[in-house]
Amino acid sequence: MANELRRAAHISGWGRYAPTRVLTNDELSRMVDTSEEWIQQRTGILERRVAGSDETTASMSLRAARAALDVAELDPRKVQLIIVATVTPDYVFPSTACLDQDALGARSAGAFDLSAGCSGFVYALSVAADLIVAGRYDNALVIGAETLSRITDWSDRNTCVLFGDGAGALVLQANEARGGVLASVLGADGSGGDLLKLPAGGSVHPATSETVDQRQHYIHMDGREVFRFAARVLPKATRQVVEQVGLKVEDIALFVPHQANGRIIQSAVKALGIPPDRVFTNLARYGNTSSASVPMALAEAIDEGRVQKGDLIVCASFGAGLAWAATAIEWSLPLPVPEPPRWRIFWRRTLYHLARIQSWWRRLWRRADARLRRLGEGEDE
Q1: Which of 50, 53, 189, 289 has the most C-beta neighbours closer than 10 Å?
Q2: How far apart are CA 134 and CA 308, in angstroms?
């Protein structure tokens, strides 16, 4: 790895959240024509998490974001940029990132969503890191969050066994110390866009009674072709990103692939020649959480002590688009991170309560101001 010091984007905080509701293979076998054995053998998944009726992509991403900010000891009011990678936003607009920005009280932050299928988080991480290296921002909050259970056809055994809900987040901060996000590879092949898509709900097929009846608002996937694509592109992107920083696959200390399918991961690992003890997977417990997959896995790996200062970490993903991405990170933070004192935890919770009050006050003032303007213009009697 290069020894020269340069402005870089370093990971200073991480967090994850998974709903408490667990949906097992056994339960699925009673919902559709499948079996525990079939699901496990074909996917490597044992169970997945499903969001409760009161949970959304924004609420889950907020919990992961707060955890990441706590680790980074970053005041939410000082966050400068928020990117949420998701294919299941709370609304088409406003963005989920703007909802998080308001809930966090990050009033100085720019915020936007990024959609790149299951590769969305690595795309977002690359964008945030490049903006930090360029000097445009000193910190960024990057989140991957999905509520895939809301767009999963629970009568289709080929897709419903795969997906789960959850959120993961990383805090990036500028530093001239060695390490950080070293390089990223982003790619796409739009000719394969029809292999994995949500057919209706966009401008091509707006929601109608017909699109609902035809179940066009659920995930449609050609599993065989997506498998072939993933098995080819995952090792290719991994090799490209390590070559960019003058290293080899053998230098990878931890490989964190998109948690889509156990057989895809095994195929990629075999092609790359990475020893199993250098690969992190949590697929069996969470299933495919799309944009949340990589940050949830990386955060869990860090919490389990799988990362040490100086380690080369490669995260690689693929998904709808067809899109793919990989990033190389040299871990620079000493671990483990000490627990924050109680007063700091209390103060941060107070800030979030204040953010809710401030949001409520701004909404109230906006409505009152609009009413006064109408009265002044003689529009309201």
Answers
A1: 289
A2: 27
Q: How many CB atoms lie within 10 A of CB 201?
A: 14
Q: What's the pLDDT tens digit per position in 114-149?
A: 999 999 999 999 999 999 999 999 999 999 999 999
Spatial contact of 198 and 217, defined as CB atoms under 8 Å apart: yes
Please give the model's pTM, rounded to 2 decimal places.
Answer: 0.94
Q: Which domain holds residue 61?
A: 8-330
- In a domain, residue 352? The reply is no
| Separation between Cα atoms, residue 150 and residue 154, nearest integer Å | 10
Q: Residue 318 maps to which CATH number?
A: 3.40.47.10
Beta strand ranges found along the chain (DSSP E): 8-17, 21-24, 47-50, 81-85, 110-114, 139-147, 165-175, 180-188, 196-197, 220-221, 254-257, 312-319, 323-330
134 falls within a domain:
yes
What is the pLDDT, as a whole number, of residue 369? Answer: 84
Dist CA 8 CA 172 (whole Å): 9
- Reported residue count of the chain is 381
Number of domains the chain contains: 1
